[in-house]
User: Fold this.
Amino acid sequence: MDLLEKLGILASAAKYDVSCASSGSNRKNTPGGLGNSAEAAMGICHSWSADGRCISLLKILYTNCCSHDCAYCINRRSNDLPRAVFTPEEVRKLTIGFYRRNYIEGLFLSSGVLKTADYTMELLLRTVKDLRLKDNFNGYIHLKVIPGADRRLVREAGFYADRLSVNIELPSERGLRLLAPGKDKEAILQPMAYINERIVANQEEKKKFKRAKAFSPAGQSTQLIVGATPESDLQILRLSEGLYKKMGLKRVYYSAFIPVAKNPLLPAIDAPPLRREHRLYQADWLLRFYGFSADELLETPAPFLDEDLDPKTVWALRNLDFFPVEIHRASYRMLLRVPGIGEQSARRIISARRWGTLGFPELAKLGVVMKRARYFITCRGSFLERLDNEERIRARLLAGVKKKESLAGRQLPLNFAAGLESYGGETDADLCL
Amino acid sequence: MLTYVYDGSLEGLFTALYEGLFSGEEVAEITNNRRYRPSLFSTAKVIATDPEKARKLRRFLQKRLSRQAFQNLVYCYLSESGMEKTILSYIRLLMPAGRKAGGNSHARSREIMAVLGAITQTARKVAYEVHRFHGFLRFRQVRVGTWKNACPNTCTSAHTPDGDPGAEVADTLLSSCGNTHASIDECDGDFYYAPIEPDHNILALLVPHFTARFAGQKWFIHDRRRNLGAYYDGRECRLVSGVEISDQLAASLQGRKAGSEDEEEMLCRELWQEYFTSTALEERKNEKLQKQHMPVRYWKYLTEFE
Assistant:
């Protein structure tokens, strides 16, 4: 089998992994070396594939041979499809060749489990180590940790990769038992906790010793599939919240379940739940940057996110007694809670109001989305539109959404990070962190 | 109505601005000699570039402005979108007379907001295009003898990694040492060539990123719209103008096989195209979103669309 064919098989086997981040590492180039990882706060996207997802890393599996038989996975043992295995040299050649031509920011290497977890992890480690040591490659490397692999391997991998990740796969232990019989919660959470421990310890070391080697400098992330099992959005968000707080994760990626197999255990759906995924990303942003908690966003009687309105607006409608917010006096935290005001516009409001008073047109210029914000704010005590009834505001907002949709004649363009857009202010370059 | 016409260089612009500030003339428009179109209602005045005046103005600006604000001015110049008059109004606001000017304070703050807004917005556009080209630029490995000639009439100092971009680019563009001799034809071995056609004149702004990242390989970035080039020989980067490429390379840019690339290069391109198609999820096809992020005008030199 030639390299071209292998690449086709193993890229297509890796495409269900959604992580695309390539920033936050700050690895410098070395004399005689190749590459660095972007210093800028936002990563560099090199291309966008036909599904509208950005391509910044060469995302491949080392092999799609797998000893597991997870029902939701295209690479499961019982699936009849062509299999391939790279060699470390081939992966290196591809990475270096692509990187030199500025096609990519770096490598995202994952794998099916070949023979045993340790055996596979050793192969991955060897590839990454050779890239760093033999090719002097300083670009970004995201390495998947194979659940169940020896700690020593994980530890060593952390010194060569910029980001490590362990996929949590499904939002609950029950789901895992049902659909991924070879995997268990402990085997996933243990390495995650271990990596976090090492990252924290490494940060301490770096304070004491200037030359301490960085361990997974861009942190760790994880991914879970939405819609393959019956968990509610509230359960998922609570899980993410826990992962951010307890495991110090940088990102949790949500991947709308794509029915790649017919299995009585799996729900029969026609299209992946893209809208739900989109709302989850929006809620995820609220958890990480806007000071919300999972239990504020959703309550047990209705544990799913509203598909028609974004989670922040829904929260605001449920808590109308917090509003209206006076733009000239509200704290940064409170401004962040107003629908239509994002991080950037909140910051701009704070700095602009020092110099003078702001009117509604000025707010729009600062990047506030007035379409949503208008019902929730006052400027020097005056309203733009006073509707103090939840139902009426909701009806007005929905009318706007419906109009937009009928104009576009299709579903909203979904992007797994597009949650940002609806909070205004941010540029689309921020979409892929 | 008076129109100042300068020679298109940053030095020329600074001279024109200097004149606009101190000559006492009422300037309606400042434009460079390529964009200038004579009109019935205006008289043109050609501004001869004066390095001394340019230097004075630059020193004043750097003293008065934050790094970011100075960088914004340079970016506005590079945007090539007719921002010269706005820059003049901006500098007027900085001058002592401008600050003391009385009158309607509300109208004045409106004016400040408008000028400032236009400048930051334009600068942001330029910065965004730079960011985009960090990703969209594609190198191809080629053999020597690829270009016919390029006259290195601009000399650049070696790049210092953590300076501030505004001052650095101004340094690059304002340095008037015309004594670069090393002809580019002398370079040997293979190198990496990248054609670009950006909306704004961002070549000089791309240099720091690519010098840091590809310090170990020789490369040439060619702005085909403006015939400018940045050549990195493994040690330092030079900006050149008037670049002409060989027929062979021109042919290969149009997608014809011309033998200027070896097999490895062709294989690498093919592999990338394979990767590009294999990584897309058929179930989530969304070409509108793809084009939103990657406008079609940038597709011309993208390997994946060849």
